[in-house]
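## tool: complex_structure
## caller: assistant
## args:
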Amino acid sequence: MTALRSSMHEPLALPASDEASIAAAARRRARNRRLKVWGARALTLMIIVGGWQLFTAQKIVDPFFFGQPTGIVSQLKDWIQHGTEYGSLWLQIWVTMKEALLGFLYGVIAGIFFGVLLGQIAFLADVLGPYIKVMNAIPRIVLGSIFTVWLGLGTSSKVLLAAVLVFFVVFFNAFQGVREVDRNLVNNARVLGASRLAIVRHVVLPSALTWIIASLHVAFGFAVIGAIVGEFLGATQGLGLVIASSQNHFSPDGVFAAMLIIAVIALTAEGLIGQLERRLLAWRPPSPTETAAGA
Amino acid sequence: MVLSERGEHVLIQTAPAGKAPARPAPGAAASEALAIELTAMTKRFVNPKGEVFTALEDVNLTVEPGSFCAIVGPTGCGKSTTLTMVAGLDRPSAGLVRVGGEPVRGIASGTSFMFQTDALLPWKSVLGNVALGPIFRGTSKRKAQSTAKEWLRRVGLAGFENHLPHQLSGGMRKRVSLAAALINEPSILLMDEPFGALDVQTKAIMSNELLGLWEESRPSVMFVTHDLEEAIALADKVVVITAGPGTVKAVYDVDLPRPRGAVQEIRFEPRFLELHQQIWESLREEVQRAYSRTTDTSRTGGDRS
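## result:
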């Protein structure tokens, strides 16, 4: 009944309106919707965190195993004020970030290079294809143990693990992106007199960029996983080590606190990659889904 | 939509010889127009199943230097394949393709190609797209861009240099393609149904512009289309290709005087109608043959070729 009333109400109000008030009404609707979405988000968070706190405080759920929001906050405060057992918290964050970023960088560069190379040279792709598939099928996390043995407890073993994880994600996307390049565009460039290198630079790379950038979102997640798991397997510093030692001390609050820090880092990186994406792909015509997802 | 209104109805400004120092006076082509000769050219393809399919069989055809040759024929008769072979994008299975007396080996520098679908890079501005030709041939970026600017003015797109292709209407994108194809001052211009996707009015306007630009520098043109009226209105010679495997069925000389003027009006001239009648007689058989073949195969589900 209310739905019917409101749908009848609108056409009555609109015909009298001029352009300015229609625009104002549209703005108001958009703002109301944004407010509603944010309100619902805050409510969801309150229910989850509040419920968690309530259940653990009432001992319905054992805080010894599941931690407690207040415990997590005090653990974070403690780390910030007194540092972790391996040095200051900021040092741990920096070490993990450095490993993840370097691994990300190397993995992305190698992934794009080999993706474009194999995408351009079909013979090479046919020869190496099966080997790459085999390597991709190996659970690569296990390689972390070998890298620690090879490169020791320093940062290089974590960087390598992160790079390997990132490589395959970026490689497959770059390869596919190169394969999907419009033949027409390539032929046109050829007739205009472009060399093979010029075609890669002016046609193939920009065209594959849509695919490559889409992979970066996932790839950065893998870089962080590589760094953390590498630290788990053996390290002298880093957030992964902090998590591992919290686990050994039966401190779920410590594990969750470290998780929270990692989540903040990952979200920041995600935002930066999103910004990079918008800059590099500014030429794309706005798609209807993008304009709709303004909130 | 304001954009398309402005762009679509500006006719080309033919540059006075003094104002365009980069271009020679009309008539004296920068690069000499070359003859295109196809001798006993055959093209067969092998599909992934290993079956051999003959697209073109024993094609003999000559396009005189500086003349406009239209190629008409039913869908799938190998018209476009002919062009890719002249461009050097592909090689004939047998026979010879010669441009200016020299056999075609790979992509030649004096050839431009205008494709049926837009071949503009969507991430480059209009100016960047037109400047690609000279840049690929080693011209400095600044010089290429000033030449590109001049060409955009000639096709009536001055002021749209920084737009992206998707911000233009279909007709305007064709103008950009035309400028991009002509900027290298080709001696041979290959066009594969360049205006096929346009609406009738825009197509007529674009045809007029093409004729105007062509008459300035007179490259040899091979123009593939299945619009017979367009073919007669534009060309010196109309070649009818048979239903696949394609071969030359007949060649008609179009003796309408040049400059042709508006293509919308020339189609009412008695000589035009006479030619249309003649060529259509010849073309109709092939179109019917091609059509009945497709309906036959769809009925029996078999593959006759």
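## assistant note: Chain B has two domains: 1-30+120-185, 33-110+188-300. Residues 1-30, 301-305 of chain B have pLDDT under 50 and may be disordered. Handing back to user.
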